[in-house]
Amino acid sequence: MTPTQQVALWADELRAMAAHGLYYNKDIYNQERYHKIQSIALAMLALASGVTLDTLEPLRNTLLSHLTPFAVGDAAIMDAAGRMLLIRRADNGLWAMPGGALDVGETAAEGVLREVLEEAGHYCEVTGLAGVFDSRLWGSTSPHHMYQFVFLCRLLDKPPIATPSHSHETLEQAWFAETDLPPNIDPNHAGRIPVAFQVWRGERPPFFDL
User: What is the pTM of this model?
Assistant: First the structure.
């Protein structure tokens, strides 16, 4: 973990502490203290991300009020030849499993299938759980602590959507064997993709961090 990533993690921990305090403790003096902690977390996040405080300020009542680690999901889509479908992200140009943040009102599996449809235009079904990963331990560059669900999936026999709703997030997509993965994989996915291959082959049970 780089110093910048460590500062971002500390900021996220303070953000969570302040959110819990503001939600559960209504004493006016403690509310002032938790607002101060929230401001410190915001300043640390700005320092770590290189974004101005004015830009981050609107997040105070949304992102900074979140009480727990964020839940996100990715799809390890496998074909009969043992290849995985990866997308090249538009935000950083790196290859990754399709996926994203999970929404309130959907299961983790439903959220992953939605993300695949939005980003890659494919209709899939979930065949199993590859694992639940703690973002702090798997190369994430996000300033926020996340629980990352990875589901094994396969394509349904339905034609893909020509222009997915979130196609602007994806530069291209391609199938890769484990022995022929692209060199420029998103660091947050580089360690989790081999685990998904292992679970798919039945070499290990679904993974979770201890």
Answer: 0.75
